Amino acid sequence: MNVHYKMIECTLQNSKLIQYLTKYAEIDADDYDKIFPWRHDCPQGGRIYVALSMPPGKTMEDVVKSNSKIVIYGWLTASVSTWKNKNKKKYDIAYVAFLATRQRTERIKGLGKTLMEMMETNMRDIGVDFIKLMPIESASSFYKMLGYTPCLTIGDKPAYLLCKTLWHHGPNDEYAQYLDNKQTEDDFIKKEKKEN
Ligand SMILES: CC(C)(COP(=O)(O)OP(=O)(O)OC[C@H]1O[C@@H](n2cnc3c(N)ncnc32)[C@H](O)[C@@H]1OP(=O)(O)O)[C@@H](O)C(=O)NCCC(=O)NCCS
Hints:
Layout: E1 4-9, H1 15-27, E2 47-53, H2 60-65, E3 71-84, E4 90-101, H3 111-125, E5 130-133, H4 140-145, E6 149-150, E7 162-165, H5 172-195
Parallel strand pairs: 4-5
Antiparallel strand pairs: 1-2, 2-3, 3-4, 5-7, 6-7
Bound molecules: coenzyme A.
Coenzyme A binds next to strand 4, helix 3 and helix 4.
């Protein structure tokens, strides 16, 4: 089977293509477990990394135009944001929002790892300093195996994000403080939602 790996930027221009991929991912949704990345918005400035099979000799554009059948094997969505420290040094930070590969029929071994490596190479190429992600418990050791380690935290609070350095580490204490505030903010939002 010929599997192609594609990166698609989340732009208005690509919305038709993203809709097309979403339609085919949804057809086989029963083959996925717990996480369905295509059901979430493609964030502005975000990127989708997708593994698929499609008719030979065709481009993605041809596929959409001719309404050809495709099969989606895995999907990763990531976004990039810029954070400035107090000296106005900018850090570009990628956030892996969702990753899932087929777990039932037509499962391809090594696909999750390949999608992650493709995303990392692409993020490194565009100058991203480091990557962060928030694993569900059952996927933590998968990311650790790929070199992700708990992001710095303040005090002995457990880190719920994992990080990997590409070009630069976060500016240690300052970024840890930012993550800590963000974690407190997120916990607060979650708590409020639960109560309402
Ligand atoms: C987690 C997930 C994306 C991994 O992708 P995958 O295609 O199954 O993984 P790969 O085949 O690339 O596996 C690469 C290696 O990681 C290991 N691995 C895969 N999933 C793992 C997991 N959940 N925990 C620990 N190790 C895992 C594999 O055994 C393999 O090891 P090997 O190289 O020694 O043989 C996939 O299992 C999945 O979609 N899970 C359900 C949704 C999910 O949990 N998404 C992540 C949310 S944060």
